[in-house]
Amino acid sequence: MKGAVVQVDQNRFLADLHMLRSFGASGVGKGVVRPAYSNADSAARVWLAERFFEAGLSVETDAMGNLFGLADGPSLLLGSHSDSQPEGGWLDGALGVIAALEVARASREAGGPAISVVSFQDEEGRFGVTTGSAIWSGHMGLAEADLLFDHHGVSLAEARRNVPVTGDVDPAQFTGFIEMHIEQGPVLDTAGEQIGVVSDIVGIRDMKITFEGQQNHAGTTPMHLRRDAFQAVSSFNFELNERLRNVVTPATVWTIGHMRLHPNASSIVPGKAVFSMQWRDGDAGRLGRMEGIIRVLAQEIADARGMVVSFGPLLGLEPVGMDAKLRKALENSATSIAPGRWRVMPSGALHDATNVSRLMPVAMLFVPSIGGISHAFEEDTDEVDLIAGLRVLAGAVEALES
Ligand code: HGY
Ligand code: MN
Ligand code: MN
Fold first, then answer.
1. What is the pLDDT of residue 281?
2. pTM listed for this prediction
3. Which residues contact 316 (CB under 8 A, 6 or more apart)?
4. Ligand 1 in contact with 349 (CB < 6 A)?
5. How many angstroms separate the CA atoms of 66 and 131, rounded?
């Protein structure tokens, strides 16, 4: 019904948010350990499917394990992801899924607009980069993705073997996508503001780099004769910071977040190092220039040390702007719910909205992260801000359908 007033139930919303947190609860603060396809993730998705069904939505799971609750006919899609980082916060992704569920329920109760809900799989990239929505949006083929491995050598094909697939979900039924998410950075919290309306999402590049030298005895091998893979990584990292200086801006980020030394023993000079090299920026050209510097430097380091360097597949997403109409609805709703306490801002974190933007108009809204902390068990947001964000989302949905 046009103009229906969608009354969200904040207690039901918070209860479901805390229930979702119980799947993979880390026991440290409100943290969760719920990586894609883990037992905790699968159990959480069974629970979410039941909630979607109770909300009158028809439940579908695609081959990647993306979980959809579908309204009849054309609908606005809301959602995010419910998988977590290896050490994750209770709100990263989960907030967007439960907020979507609550708005879908409240809208149905009010005879309001048709709302579908999604929890994408492997947004946190156990196997790739926002893998579930990347496959759904056609950015990557499933056969290609099945060849990806996690840091423990498990393939995606293996991990998704037991997904309870019901079928594909056609994106054409959706009029647009709005994702509510925590900011995961310090801006809103520092400014004492409640809502961020996202202007654009940065782009990302991510690949594994391997240095191979000579495994040897840590006591008898003179330093000048070593071909030490960790020393190669160390000088690569030091020199990279120097070489990027004139290419990057204060908003550019680059990270070596994971490294595996072989054989990883105190008395053995490591002969092999495999590490993740990830960089992000709002400008695609700058991402490309950084890639060139990274590849050239790694080769120089290997050549100078008589070692071999190899590069894994380069994964990435381009920077993307949010849809003007959806964004305006969020801005208007933020003005009425949090007057003077909201801003337009870019997203330094990646989100499923980037992939979905290939298929339909998308927009995002943020709520603050206390201390700007995320991808850590300490991640948290004040309840009053969670509720404000939920109300902004509901208000935008109402306005879009009126
Ligand atoms: O890394 C990211 O930006 C997202 O949280 N996966
Ligand atoms: Mn996320
Ligand atoms: Mn995340």
1. 98
2. 0.94
3. 129, 203, 204, 205, 206, 287
4. yes
5. 10
Strands 362-367 and 174-182: parallel
Cα 369 from Cα 355, distance rounded (Å): 24
DSSP state string for 56-124: TPEEEE-TT--EEEE-SSSEEEEEEE----SSB-SSTTHHHHHHHHHHHHHHHHTT---EEEEEES-TT
Q: Ligand 1, from 81, 122, 124, 127: best to mutate by most atoms within 8 Å of Cβ?
A: 124
Q: How many CA atoms lie within 13 A of 273 on its CB side?
A: 26
Distance of CA 92 from the midpoint of ligand 1 (Å) = 9
* Beta carbon of 385 within 6 Å of any ligand 1 atom: no
Residue 264 Cα, ligand 2 centroid: separation in angstroms?
A: 32
Q: Is the dihedral of CA 320, 321, 323, 329 positive or negative?
A: positive
Q: Is 374 helix (H, G, I), strand (E, B) or coil?
A: coil
Q: What is the mean pLDDT of residues 335-353?
A: 98
With a 6 Å cutoff on the Cβ, whether 350 touches ligand 1 is yes
CA 18 – CA 274 distance, rounded (Å): 37
With contact defined as beta carbons under 8 Å apart, do 220 and 387 qualify? no
Radius of gyration over every alpha carbon of the chain, rounded to an integer in angstroms: 22
79 by Cβ neighbours in 10 Å (0-12 / 13-18 / 19+) ranks as buried
The amino acid sitting at 337 is I
Nearest ligand atom owner, CA of 88: 3
User: 50-59, pLDDT tens digit by residue?
Assistant: 999 999 999 9
Cα–Cα distance measured from residue 85 to residue 42, given in angstroms and rounded to the nearest whole number: 15
| Contact call for residues 140 and 128 (beta carbons, < 8 A) | yes
Pairwise CA distance, residues 246 & 253, whole Å: 14
- Supply the pLDDT for residue 6: 87
Q: How far is the CA of 127 from the centre of ligand 1 (A)?
A: 13
Roughly what angle, to the nearest 10 degrees, separates helices 324-337 and 383-401? 130
Residue whose CA lies nearest to ligand 1 atom number 6 = 124
83 lines ligand 1 (CB under 6 A): no
Residue 130 alpha carbon, nearest atom of ligand 1? 6
Q: Is 123 in the pocket of ligand 1 (CB under 6 A)?
A: yes
* Residues with a beta carbon under 5 angstroms from ion ligand 3: 92
State residue 5's pLDDT score.
78
Residue 56 Cα to ligand 1 midpoint, Å, equals 31
Residue 110, token pair as written in the block:
């009010």
